[in-house]
Write the C-alpha cells for this entry.
Amino acid sequence: MENKDYNIFSTQIARVLILQKYLLKVIILRKKQFKAESKKLLDMMINSIYTHKEIFLRELISNASDATDKLYFKSLTDTSINTDKLEIRIDLDKDARTITITDNGIGMTADELEKNLGTIAKSDSLNFKNENEGDENMDNIEVIGQFGVGFYSSFMVADKVEVVSKALGSNEAAKWVSEGADGYTVEPCEKDTVGTVITLHIKENADDEDYDQYLEQYKIQELVKKYSDYIRYPIVMEMTSQVPDPDNEGETITEVNDEILNSRVPLWRKSKSEIKDEEYNEFYKQKFYDYTDPALVIHSKTEGQATFDALMFVPKNAPFDFYSKEYEKGLQLYSNGVLIMDKCADLLPDYFSFVKGLVDSADLSLNISREILQHDRQLKIIAKAIDKKIKSELTKLLRNEREKYEEIWKTFGVQIKWGVYADYGMNKDGLKDLLLFKSSNGGYTTLKEYRDRMADSQDTIYYACGDSDDKIALLPQCEAVKEKGFEVLYFTDDVDEFAIQMLMEYDGKHFANILKDDFDLSTDAEKEAMQKKNEDSKEWLCKMKDLLGDEVTAVKLTNKLGTHAVSLAAEGYVSLEMAKVLSQMPGADAQMMKAQLVLEISSSHPIADKLATADDETLKKYTKILYNQARLIAGLTVDNPTELADSIADLMV
Ligand code: ADP
C-alpha cells in the first residue's frame, strides 16, 4: 500500500490497515516455497559440479548494472531522479564471511522480490528439460544456461542470501532471505535509499572446494576485471593496502581507499585488435545467457550514412524456444553506451532472427519513443547495414571455414531457407548463395558448386524430396538419375521445395523435381517407344486407373525406375512433398492441397507382363497392392494396412 493512500483515509481506517499489515507480516513470514519447477532447478544449480562457480559475481553485477540502467533511463524523462552517483559497490567482510553487492538502481518492491526471485524459469523451459531427460548428451548446465537464472548462481557459493531492496517511487523497503531450495521469506524492512543490497553468506570450505578465495580482495578484483570490466558504472571496492609510513621510516601503515575496479569501456567500443577471443566469448555468454561459446562473432564499426558499432553473435545451439512463438528476435539498442531497447526487432530480418547482439549508435536520440523509433530513418539505415554485414560475414565463413559454416547451417539453415521463400521471394537474391543442400555428391553443396559440377549437356538442376538423405538416395527415380551420372540435391526440410520454387532458377539453370511425372531423361526415340508401349497396354492400364478411382490421375508405364517395379509421381504444380506440407497447415483444404498422383509401372519389370495377362480378379488385387507399395515408397500413409498385409499373405499362400 502506498503512502499517499494513508493521507486520504481517516485514522480509523489507518488503524485497520496497520492491523492488516501486521497480520500480513505474520502470514508472509511463514517460509514460502519456491515454485515447484524452480525448486528442482535450484537443487540442480546448488549441487551441480559446475566448475565456474565464480560467475556468480558477474551475474549479480550485471543485474545491478541493468537495474541502474533502468533508473538512468527513467531519469531522462523525470528530472527529479538523482543520477549523480550511480555506482555498484562490493564490500567484503572476512570475519562475517559475507560479500555485499550494493547498487542504487531502480530497486524492487516486496511484490517484485517475490515475483523475480521466487520463480527461476518459466515452465516452458522446464518442459524442454523434461523432454530431454535421460539424454546423456544433455549437459544439465547447458540447460540451466538457457534460463535467466543469473541471481540463483549465488547459491553456488553462498548458503544464505539476503536481498534488501527499495523500489523507485516506493516508501517501503523489503527483505528477501533464502537458504536455498527450502524456500524463502519476504518481510518489510528499513532502507533509506532506493536500490538493492545483496548479501551472500559464503559457504565454508569443503573438501575440494575453496570458497574462502571469494572473500579475498585480489580475487574479487580479478573476477571483476575478467567478467565485468566493460560495465558502464564504476564498480567500487574498499581496498586496504600496506603503504610506507611517512612518519616512521621502514614501517608501514594500513591505508584504506575506495578503488574503481573496472575500466568501464564497453567491449564493443574497443578496437578489435585489443580484444581476445575469450573476452568476446565471455561477454556473449554473460549478456545472452548462454553457457556455450558462440559459433561466430561479428564485430563491426561503421561510419558514413550512419555511424554505429555492432557486436553480434551466432549462437552454437538454438535457444530452447527458438522454434516457438515465444521467441523474440532483436538486437539490443544503445545510444552512446546507454541501453534504450532490449530487443529491437526492426534491426534484424527474420531470416537472421537467430543472431544475438547489440548496436550502439550516437545518431539516435536517447529518449526516442518506441513508436517513433519504428519510423526512424537512421534505424532503417542501420538495419540495412547490419543485414549486409551478417551476409558478408557468413559468406566469408562459408568460403574460408566451411566446417564452421556447416555447423551453423545445421542449426539455423532452415531459417535462411524460409527467408528465400518469405515475402514473395523479396530477399532471395541476397540469400541464395548462403544456401546449402545435401546432395548425391556426398555432404553439403552450395548451388554454385552444383552448377560448377554440371556437365555441358545437363541443363537442369535435379532434386528429390523425402524424409531423410538415405531414403531419398534409395528412391527408384533417384537411383536411375544417378546411374545416368547426374547429381541430385536432397531436400529433407519442408521449406526446401518452396524456397527453390521461389528461386525459380540459379545462374540460368532451372530446377526439376525428379519425382514429378513430367520428369524424363530418355532420348526422343526412347520416349516414342514408351509412348507406343503405353498405347499398346492401354486396356489394362485404364482398368487399373478405374480400379483406383480418384486416388490417381493416371497409371502409366515408364522406363525411369531402373530395376524397381513401381513408384508414384506427381503431376502439375503441387509435388508430393509440397502436398504433405500444405496439408499439415492449419485450415488447409485437403482437396485443394492434394497432389495429382500418377502410378508409374516399370515397363522392363516382369510385373508389367504379369499385369498385362492377369484376369480381372487378379488385376484388382495387384493394383491395390502396387498402389499401396508406391505410397509407402513415397513416404505416404496407407489407408488400410491390414487389408494390404492380408492381400500379400494371400498371394504367398
Ligand atoms: P535475469 O537477470 O536473467 O532476468 P535473475 O534471476 O538474475 O534473472 O533476476 C531476475 C530479476 O530480478 C531480474 O530480471 C530483475 O528484474 C530482478 N533483479 C535482480 N537483481 C536486481 C537488482 N540488483 N536490482 C533490481 N532488480 C533486480
In short: Residues 1-29, 121-148 have pLDDT under 50 and may be disordered. Residues 233 and 352 are 32 Å apart (CA to CA). The two ends are 85 Å apart (CA to CA).
